[in-house]
Amino acid sequence: MTELVEHGKLFIGGEWTDPSPSSRLRSSRGGPEGSEVIEVISPHTEEVIGRVPHASEADVDRAVVAARRAFDEGPWPRMALEERIAVVTRIKDAIAVRYEEIARSISSQNGSPYSWSVLAQALGAMMVWDAAITVARDFAYEERRGGVLGPLLVRREPVGVVAAVIPWNVPQFTAAAKLGPALLAGCAVVLKPSPEAPLDSYILAEIAAEAGLPEGVLSILPADREVSEYLVGHPGVDKVSFTGSVAAGRRVMEVASRNLTRVTLELGGKSAAVILPDADLDTALAGIVPAAWMNNGQACVAQTRILAPRSRYEEIAEALAAAAGALVVGDPLDPATQVGPLVARRQQQRSLDYIGIGQAEGAKVLAGGGRPAGLDRGWYVEPTLFGGVDNSMRIAREEIFGPVICLLPYEDEAEALRIANDSDFGLSGSVWTGDVEHGIDFARGVRTGTFNVNTFSLDMLGPFGGYKNSGLGREFGPEGFGEYLEHKMIHLPAGYGDA
């Protein structure tokens, strides 16, 4: 049985402090002085595995005031870049030391297979921190330009206090994607983890405290959507960086707009993996299968629409169905598991509902289609593959966020490109071909923020983000780093600096 993890304090401004009394006593288990408590449920056992305080609006106020003071008056934004890099490097190094603990914590909360949590959740987060350091060190913070009326000095300065709202599916990875550039730029941050996955954020808080961040620079407040909305709309916040659903992203943008707060939104996807007629099928499947069912299908970049040429459709359908059926489903903490449970009962039911919708629409279940045999407890859904899917079907157009994949036939490459682009989303995608140069040409025609040719990866030194409903702005690389900076133009007198 998993040991119960309990935390009684919040990390506000770099200090462990009691939560403020809450006026919304919805929980039957009150914390100190009537504060609310978040109960973390194992998606494998359906039992309580952790309890943490539920931050209130008063806690948000305390965190924003601390962040505001740290940014407006404190040393952090005024330090030399190398001093900030030294602190952030200590955070990155500590994550590398505690990666197994972090991976186990995340798998216990959200059902990610442990092997995937080690590589993507923990070590992947360390790589994000490391990439942010590389970008910050090479970034041009000031430049001289010739102007129409005289020389110019263009500066890039930290945006201020950042509200970073992260999801439950990849909590450390998305936290690093926001904290790394924000902190290195000189910002102060209030990080808001999801109530489904708050336990690993306590490990991050311990690491940050030991790394030597100055007072007020970082707060971590687990809370629900109501408190998130209060944070996003707080007048003391200069920038919101949000990762989550399209619906929630729209709400974030609406609330932030009241204060004209800058926003970055990394939202959903319905990405297409296009197998061209000349592709080597073994190579394609070796990349597509883990990219489709990664993290139990709970990944915004998952390749959830697989496009196959009609001339090879039956061959591809048979191979994909066999691959889906061979995936090992089970306890997320078992190193052999490839697909674990979904994060919550509602997510399990959502996937099962979409399976029913797909069948009603006329698609054919080629693999999976229900709960796995022998796993009556836990929020499991079989890795499911639908064949005979038309791109107008709901299962092909809506983000399911579970292990449900669509296989769509196409007649020629023009139709494949049209289907790939016929989506409200534009986050990721891939093409599989015997001719890489031709694959690059195909990639140029796809309306999506990231794309892969004969591979599937996410490089932290390049820009990541989406077209259309997949979001606004970018994370990673100099483009993502720039999201945490303001541009200032300083006019200089004519002739200044001339030899």
Main attributes of the structure:
alpha/beta, globular, seven-stranded mixed beta sheet, 499 residues, Aldehyde Dehydrogenase, Chain A, domain 1, single chain, 23 strands, six-stranded mixed beta sheet, 2 domains, Aldehyde Dehydrogenase, Chain A, domain 2
How would you describe the overall organization of this protein?
The chain is α/β, with parallel strands linked by helices. It folds into 2 domains: about 5-265 and about 475-485, Aldehyde Dehydrogenase, Chain A, domain 1; about 270-460, Aldehyde Dehydrogenase, Chain A, domain 2, CATH 3.40.309.10. Helix content is about 40%, strand content about 20%. It is built from 15 helices and 23 strands. The strands form 6 sheets. A 7-stranded mixed sheet has the order 15-16-17-14-13-19-20, with helices on both faces. Strands 10-9-8-11-12-22 form a 6-stranded mixed sheet, with helices on both faces. A 3-stranded mixed sheet has the order 1-5-4, with no helix packed on it. Strand 2 (about 10) and strand 3 form a beta hairpin. Helix 2 packs antiparallel against helix 5 (about 170-185). It is globular, with a radius of gyration of 23 Å. Mean pLDDT is about 95; it is low at about 25-35.
